[in-house]
Amino acid sequence: MTAPPAFDPSRHWRLHPQVALRDESFGALAYHYGTRRLLFLKSPQLVALVSSLEEFDSARAAIDALVSETERPTYTRALARLAASEVIDVD
Amino acid sequence: MSIDAAPQAMPLRERFTQGLDAPICLTWELTYACNLACVHCLSSSGRRDPRELSPVEARGIVDELADMKVFYVNIGGGEPMLRPDFFDLLGYAVEKKVGVKFSTNGTRLTAERARRLAAMDYVDVQISIDGALASTNDAVRGTGSFAAARTAMDNLAAADFGQFKISVVVTRENVTQLDAFADIAAGYGAQLRLTRFRPSGRGVDSWEALHPTADQQRMLYHWLLDRPDVLTGDSFFHLSALGEPLDGLNLCGAGRVVCLIDPIGDVYACPFVIDKEFLAGNVRDSGGFAHVWRQSDLFQSLREPQSAGACTSCGSYDACQGGCMAAKFFTGLPLDGPDPECVFGHGEEALAARPALSLPQSTLGHSKVDSHGVPLPVPTPVRFRSSARV
């Protein structure tokens, strides 16, 4: 198994093709069919961000469009953790 | 693991206690038929029930789980591989992207079937043993059952199945063999999974003699802390009261994030409470499984804040949440009091103070019986087919 790529916000990211999301009141569950890991996305805004990453040229562009300035560092860190868990995938 | 981008959000555990739109961890027992008769069987399995779901109904359940986005289902029994439509159902579930983790005693996991399983995506296999030695295992699961399970493991390894799981219910007799279990798993490149022995099903009769002692539980807790790679199904959360919490949600998920669909379609709050007290409905009722999960009175009430009862004054209540509902229920303890295996000994005090004859007697068992309806002794020897077909 190869290590997931490091999170580079200037690149184009998307929901990993083997990951399914299920909306819940707190955010969403994310299940990776390959690693069989279940993760919890703890805010609806993070779910919206992850779901629309693919439409933007880069993760940074998506964050800039969808997240308020003060919260951008938090969401950038959250995406980095999702990249490490292979919930999102560089494309 | 949780990805937290909103620090003000309600803690996840609190969210989970209020229930989710669909279960995270759903157990589906396909049949009450079993060719073993383990002394601790949580579902008192043995005889097939004539009311079991038909192949068409079973596929209907898969459809519903797919619609609810249940990512995977834990399949058990009875022995699920005894169901004639077992592989059809597996294939159908995988096609619908409902992953399958199934538990088996291994007696029907032939070399040919191992190769079929190895060719499928999204299927995990868990083989049960309850001793690292045949003598320890067979005393609980029946003569020959250890050899059969090892043959199944060999078959999976030979078929290049990949990482399977070896599942062990921790007892007073096998708790001294934890390192040996880890060695067996390592030998196959398999994952070890340890789960808690609850006094459910036939376990109600064997629990007193077989559940680990207080000293053994402390040893187990430290052993698990040192080995985060050992899976536990989140089942030892009562031990988290000893200090550092074990990995997992550390809460009773019954009716909140967990439930059981039994072979006849009855939906219970968890796999360990097959009793009418915890029956929420049936998948054949109008509205199906989703309606039972979302609307049943029982599940609604389990998602209300629960009273800590006698545990209110204990400083560790947050860590253990009062322990396991099933363990309390089947030992005749109040549900809002300590777990019978409370690490501070409050459970033992409560057990000693129980009124005589207070144990609930379940009438729902499927143990094998003789021609007079009298349960046959357990464990019974496994009747093997010829080695080519085992």
Task: Tell me what you see in this structure.
The complex is a heterodimer of chains A (91) and B (390). Chain A is of the alpha+beta class. Chain A is 33% helix and 25% strand. Chain A contains three helices and five strands. Chain A has helices spanning 44-52, 59-66, 72-84, and strands at 13-15, 19-24, 27-32, 37-41, 88-90. In chain A, the strands form two sheets. A three-stranded antiparallel β-sheet of chain A has the order 2-3-4, with helices on one face. In chain A, strands 1-5 form a two-stranded antiparallel ribbon. The radius of gyration of chain A is 12 Å and the shape is globular. With 390 residues, chain B is of the alpha/beta class. Helices cover 31% and strands 12% of the residues of chain B. Chain B is built from 14 helices and ten strands. Chain B has helices spanning 12-17, 55-67, 86-95, 111-118, 134-141, 145-158, 178-188, 203-210, 214-226, 288-295, 297-302, 317-320, 325-330, 346-352; strands spanning 2-3, 25-29, 72-76, 99-104, 123-128, 165-170, 191-196, 258-261, 266-268, 279-282. In chain B, strands 7-6-5-4-3-2-8-9-10 form a nine-stranded mixed β-sheet. In chain B, helix 2 (55-67) links the parallel strand 2 and strand 3 (72-76). In chain B, helix 4 crosses helix 6. Chain B is globular and about 55 Å long. Chain A binds chain B through residues 20, 22-27, 29, 31, 33, 36-43, 45-46, 71, 74-75, 77-78, 81-82, 85, 87, and chain B through 1-7, 9-10, 12, 15, 20-22, 24, 69, 71-72, 97, 99, 121-122, 124. Strand 4 of chain A pairs parallel with strand 1 of chain B, so a sheet runs across the interface.
